[in-house]
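note to self: dont lose this again. the chain is below, predicted strucutre after it. 792 aa total, dont forget to put it in the shared folder this time
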Amino acid sequence: MHDQASFGRWLQRHRKELDLTQAGIADQIGCTAATIQKIEADLRRPSRQIAERLAALLEIPPNDRDRFVAWARQSTRPEDAAIQFPGSESAIGAAGRPAIPGLPAPPTPLIGREQQVSALRKLLLRDTLRLVTLTGAPGIGKTRLALQVATELHDDFLHGAVFVALAPIRDPGLVATTIARAFGIHEAGDRPIIELLANTLRDKHSLLVLDNFEHLLSAAPLLAEILSTCPRLKLLITSQARLHLSGEHEFVVPPLALPDLNHLPPIDELARCAAVQVFLQRTQAINSDFELTAANASSVAAICVRLDGLPLAIELAATRTRLFTPQTLLERLHDRLAVLTGGPQDLPDHQQTLRSAIARSHELLTGGEQELFRRLSIFAGGCTLAAVEAVCQEPTGECAATILDRLASLIDKSLLRRESGDDEPRFAMLETIREYALEQLQHSGEDPILRQQHAVYYLALVEAAAPRLFEEQQGTWLAQLDREHDNLRVALRWTLDQGHVAIAARIGKALWWFWLIHGHLSEGRRWLDAILEQKQSLPAEICADLFNGAAALANEQGDYAAAQRLLQASLALHRRENNQMGIASTLGNLGLIAHMQGDHRQAIVFHEESLMLSQQLDDQRGVARTLSNLGTVAYTQGEYNQATDYLLESLALLREVGDIDGVASSLTNLGLVSCMQGNAATAGTYFAQSLVMYQELGRKQGIGLCLVGIAGVAGACGRPDLAVRLSGATTMLLDAIGVQLDRIDRANYERILAAAQEQLSPVQFATAWAEGQMLTLDQAIAEAMDIAMDFA
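---
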């Protein structure tokens, strides 16, 4: 505080440093200029209310405000207050630099925005760019980012940077007056305030930051007028909607960087992830003993991901660590809006709870936009334009242009985002915002009809996809189902909860092959089990197909007893209904189970009967699949030439009908046969071709089998270390999707590892194994392809 003898003299000096008049301060805190004059002259003390308003206006740090008020009211001397107030030479903001007149001192360091700050600095220093609008979802951190940029650019502008908070302003007509006050300008006579403002700013080389402009968009033309009359002025705006002015450059503020929950990095690296850094900073401000540890790392990372990387949400969650451990807090975040409250009281109302932040944005929507906003919440994981038009329109139909205009407006206002990609447009909400929209949908009474329309739409989608999952474009259809998987889960859950078992059964019947191919084995079994619990209300043919699908998933997990039981139930129903194609398919699957259990004789009986029926039905795909199965049995029995004949014939037919998954399977089996015949080069070629196809389809179980096969190639070609690395990676992959190697593949796997153990020292083996388990899926595939090509 230096030698300042009184609060009045300090206030006078600080006011002048900020280029404010007594009338200017009086207007902003709601008193008369005469009152300020008497306070500065030490003729009166400010009331508590005026002192608190002065503290807010002069950006007194929150922790110092009680002492500031006490000093202002002369209940303590300045030297006893021991406060470093803005304007004194020792006042330092949170950013680590002296506080700047006209800019609030940042309350906390900015984390994880280095790229955005750098990009915005470059934009605002361009001679030709004068208006930048920061847009983004509620709670994304637009204000804090703008303040940091303004602080760093202050010295690049001759007349510095000025920050104007517009959140408290409700009347667009007051925008000019509010900006004018920030520059110490007041109305005089009959001259319009905009004229006074323009005259004052005409020659100023300044950066003007206008914070929270989204509710004042009708005042945007005023900004255009200011820019046109003040050629050296630049504007940095924060708003949830762009202003739609000429020359405007929109800068969309992204969420904070998030960790990959499937591959968490080491603790020290995780702690540097931006979202985790914010959580740790705010938590340690409450509890200085808190540390990121192996025990809580996964929960902390999951909290940040659950909250979409929104800084406000993460900071509010951190305050709850007073009550909860990270694991308990994570469990409670199923209801984010109820948990994320209690923000700092010195912040605006809309930043004290997550619900109020989103509600403020919702209030700015038109009635039609609010209607579409709540209806879009029915979609999980995003949706296509076709889905929006089918599910969200009124039954009487709306003009397509109306839907498009409302979608565009919701994107413009940062409540909806268009996802990047080359496919058809796809729209999604951050899950935190979607939770609020779902509340609005439930309150509206539209929820039941919207959910029914949603279920019917996705039923049509999966039934259109199902027959195409065995054709040449199956990869495209599988990818589409993968994109819609969250929506399909929503549809299944609702139809089962509401007793619409017939719809759920049709979805399950169409979807089980997708679950098999993409490795959703346990989940698929749970859905099919839930549907089959109500099988008494379903037609026999649908039940038979569901039994068959559940058996295929159980077989993939190595649960042969359950698979056999389900297949026998399926076969009985198909025979009763005289469904010859169903009988042929089920017999083939029973042959697979017998083969896995080592009963080769019975496997051949089942496969041959299936082959005969498929030939009678002229089912080329069924014939091809059965020939592949017979080739696998022959391979297991050591009849490699016979196996090769079956597999090559199968391969030709599968290519003819366009069954990519079947082609990949036959190629994998041909690779295994080549390995057993000692032809590693040929095996590598087969495995490489198969791996490319499995990767295209997203079939992780098939990828795992190819990795095992290529590990065998590496071992046979004198690289046991590479064989062990790929084996370690395969174990991680298959464990992650809940797949067990069958008896035959397990034997190959163990043979590869046994051979490597004989050639490597224990340390070499352990090192290669650990390195393999650290590989991501993409890294493992890349290594496998290199090996296959090197030894082919």
